[in-house]
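Posted in: Structural Biology > Protein-Ligand Complexes

Title: Requesting predicted complex, 3-methyl-2-oxobutanoic acid in pocket

I'd be grateful if someone could produce the 3D structure tokens for the following input. Sequence and ligand are given below.
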Amino acid sequence: MSKHAEPARLTVPAIRARKGGEKLVCLTAYTAPMAGLLDPHADLLLVGDSVGMVVHGLPNTVGVTLDMMILHGQAVMRGVRHAVVVVDMPFGTYEAGPAAAYPAAVRLMQETGCHAVKLEACAGIGETTAFLVQRGIPVMGHVGLRPQAAMVEGGFRAKGRTEAERMRVLDEARAMDAAGAFAIVVEGVTGDLAGEVTRAVGAPTIGIGASPDCDGQILVTDDMLGLFERVPRFVRRYADLRGIIGPAVAAYAEDVRAGRFPAPAEQYGVKPG
Ligand SMILES: Nc1nc(=O)c2c([nH]1)NC[C@@H]1CN(c3ccc(C(=O)N[C@@H](CCC(=O)O)C(=O)O)cc3)CN21
Ligand SMILES: CC(C)C(=O)C(=O)O
Ligand SMILES: [Mg+2]
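-- Reply #1 --
Done. Output follows.
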């Protein structure tokens, strides 16, 4: 490392090579300043379609568009110097197959400068993943609880409690691994299934609501910082930013109403002469 202790720029193959090694530290990011804060500590930052719920107030991720992902991807890229940045392909942009997925992924790569895209497993996911990877687009997989299926499943349902679910999750992970995915998010599955998936694939697995047996972990940053209110039970809260923001805003409101803000030092003076 250089004498300035600036961590070197990570690459997609470097992430892939971490299978079974040092755990991968991953978080979501949606804005430039937050990406800048996370970047020195993270190996991979995901511009998740969770942005629709966390930032835009949508009930699930189905309403997130490609234009929204591009705007947030551009913002995050401006804040990052070290981590690999992955942008979620949103609902409706890849499920129809390679002919749909390729132009959408090219837009994400070209208009944001991101390093890779992520696809939730769906019908034909092996073929679609291979098509992108073989044309220069690194793909991260996502199996288990697939938030974009929320309308079909009637909500966010954990996976792995029936044999059929376990087979499906394992098959989808194997298909994306064989197709060349460089990493696979394993979300909302029983701990033993997450371990089984991790042992079944060559790509590193990134757990969320899964197991410490995964090769890395990811959380939605706003959840672990206590910014987003309704969090899944697998979240560990490392800060209570809502508890800091509320009193700060209340104090500002009091100062304004009492005429205590702005003070003289917070006003522009007239230039002498
Ligand atoms: N803020 C936020 N955090 C996330 O982790 C997240 C998002 N948004 N949006 C996209 C998906 C949706 N996710 C979710 C959302 C809710 C549950 C949830 O309510 N789970 C139930 C358990 C369901 C079950 O047991 O089947 C829970 O009680 O935690 C899980 C994952 C994960 N992702
Ligand atoms: C929860 C992670 C894996 C995700 O897909 C997102 O933030 O959209
Ligand atoms: Mg997502």
